[in-house]
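Next up, sample data.

:::
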Amino acid sequence: MTQDNERVELLWRDEDARPGLSPDRVVTAAVEVADAEGLAGLSMRKVAEHLGFTTMSLYRHVPSREHLVDLMRDAVLDAPAPDDTGAPWRERLKTAVRHGWELRKRHPWLAEERSTRHLPGPNALAHYEHLLSILASTPLPPAEVVAVAGLLGRFLDAEALALVEAARAERDSGVSDEEFWGARDGLWSRMSRYPTLTALWETGGFEQSDPFEFGLALLLDGVELRIAQRDGTRDETCAMCGGPIEQPASGRPRAYCSRSCQQRAYRSRKR
């Protein structure tokens, strides 16, 4: 637990403008190493060699590789995409997710070593806040706002992992994906026994121009359908948990399904 607190303090530190070796210089060098070799190729020794210092000198600024990866993630995220708050939610969300995709194309290792216990820094939380604020402007209840944000994040990382795996395979073998599959004549000669697969192959079914854009559009179509459903029943579902509300026969309609949800909503507004 103490170590986690140290990681938080390091992540949320003020910038160090002093000359010489500093956490910022170490992080910049580590990003360059990870961009070239992925997280699998990242070590304190390689970063030290990249900087021209001894490995031990790095530990005076960054206590461990784990701390270093935390800092790297937050450094490359930088600020969220510019947001036009007057635009429709779908366009705003598309811009935000595309921005995340561009970051992951430049730094595919962002998707590696996923964990529910990664400690977020200020930039990571700014991106998350941005995504949540767009979704919170829709009729989706709070639990679904958080769920959709998580789904979009996992989609981004899954697409980035495909880039990581392709780059790793090419780096380790010296052979591109196209060269690898092109040399598998023995496999292609057996494909005719699978008629659906063969027909799809022959009609261009596997020629996807942009899998990321297709996946994003499909996800946003689902979110749009969910929002339309919620919009039509917003007076019948709890504004806090999304559960059904038993409305009174007369008088003011209820916004919450229970006193507990009403209190939770009040506490969240007071923060």
About this structure: The chain is about 60% helix and 0% strand.
